[in-house]
Amino acid sequence: MNIGVLVNALPGACAQGLIWGIMAIGVYLTYRILDLADLTVDGTMCTGGAVCIMMMLHGYPVWAALLVAFLAGMAAGFVTGLLHTFFGIPAILAGILTQLGLYSVNLRILGNKSNQAINVDKYDLLISLRYIKGVPFWRNTILVVAVITVILIAALYWFFGTELGCSIRATGSNANMSKAQGINTDFNKVLGLMISNGIVAFSSALYAQYQGFADVNAGRGAIVIGLAAVIIGQVIFGRIHANFACKLLFVSIGAIIYYLVLQVVMWFGLNSNDLKLISALVVAVFLAIPHLKNRYFARRIKKGGESRA
Amino acid sequence: MLELKDLKKTFNAGTVNEKTALNGLSLRLEEGDFVTVIGGNGAGKSTMLNAIAGTWFVDEGSIHIDNLDVTRFSEHKRAQYLGRVFQDPMTGTAASMQIEENLALAARRGQRRTLKAGINNKERAFYREQLQILDLGLEDRLTTGVGLLSGGQRQALTLLMATLKKPRLLLLDEHTAALDPKTAAKVLEATDRIVKKDNLTTLMITHNMKDAIAHGNRLVMMHEGRIIYDVSGEEKRRLTVEDLLHKFEEVSGSEFANDRMILS
Prior knowledge:
CATH superfamily of chain B: P-loop containing nucleotide triphosphate hydrolases
Number of helices of chain B: 10
Distance between the termini of chain A: 59 Å
CATH class of chain B: Alpha Beta
Order of helices and strands of chain B: EEEHEEHEHHHEHEHEEHHH
Strand order of the largest sheet of chain A: 1-2
CATH class of the largest domain in chain A: Mainly Alpha
Strand content of chain A: under 5%
Number of strands of chain B: 10
Oligomer: heterodimer
Largest interface: A-B, 22 and 35 residues
Shape of chain B: globular
Mean pLDDT of chain A: 91
Distance between the termini of chain B: 32 Å
Strand content of chain B: 15-25%
Shape of chain A: globular
Number of strands of chain A: 2
């Protein structure tokens, strides 16, 4: 095992982690703030990239492609939100339905192909895996995505401090209280899902540029990676009393750690086909820990009581 | 001010669990009325409050607030006229948010939520002042998470939130039932103070007959989804718990089958 190979791979892992960190921030908004498990993201994590690459192939500038990718994600979130609130379908099922439907939509966007490549030399991409080394520092993908992440966190920090943003947080925290205080919880859920999926699609558009292609399977298991980032960030920084902006930053750092660890594991010679299984196991373990902890401690207290008796 | 006309509501209609919760309920409240509501389990007390609040729509009948027909208004739309405190202290506040954030949410009840700051410094001073009235030491803990407060503190905070923006009608659903006697007395005292100060029209459900007699200017007793006894003024002031028990047996033809009410 050559340590040089690993060191060489780390900047790329860092860039991927940052891009998926943006996606994980989107997941954080639904999972932690709205208290909904939104599986739409498995679809939108492809939609954004597909829209972005196809628009650029048709000659649109990168900023327009990113904007439309964001809007496409919002549209997907809107569908899930409507299925959930207006039609009363449980959130998790509404997300699955949208995600499944999106698979066909994504294929359509990609011109009925399962993937579309874009040549970094012919098109003016914002980021690329080729822009990691040997480019001026301000073109460096890691820096560009880091700046985007900071701007996104700042925007979300502002938004969730506004009257509207506060009412969305209240909706996720206590729907009964929110309704009693005159908050339209259905509207807020739809809006939250739209913002979340918009961010995920935006991240997807960045990821497709980074890889140099959009793939119809790009979003498979995205929710798990997003949750992994959220949970890793929480486990590592959970004890720090932090404001909202810092919490979002922890999510982003969680995603970077996820990709760095992944890189190390692969360097140890793990088959990359097994990655999804390992990701699923890692997330399952971390989700189970709080539950197991409670039971474990509860049992200990009970035993203590019996011994005294 | 509030007019309930012939309200009917049946839950689980057509199943073995069918339950007629409201059965032709009519009630008229005048401006400034403070009405206490008593009745046995399943009499329809909470159902009446939920019908007014719009938790679901009634099957029949109409609800008017200030001559405005709100029968088909959604819950959040009706909230602009109503202040609500629930039986469960966890229901009325957002645990993951700070005290001042909860108050700021309540201060904007009935308003459009815009992209202006969710809370500003001028409000903070006002909230501190208001929290002082509760006398629970919360005025120095504006940024404390509500999840860290005790049940009594949360209930007192909910009461303040319900009345921060003066409601046309205050709905109290056994709001002291889940608290220890000392805290319950304190919250009830705060209720009296706030209702008197703003001259709020109030509907208060209680399981405690003494409280029902001691508070408010009018008392109604419910049974099987209807009001069976309605007393106010001098007659109410002279009421005793024995009178109420006797009245209940007389009107309903059955024993007052609720230990909680007799024991407390």
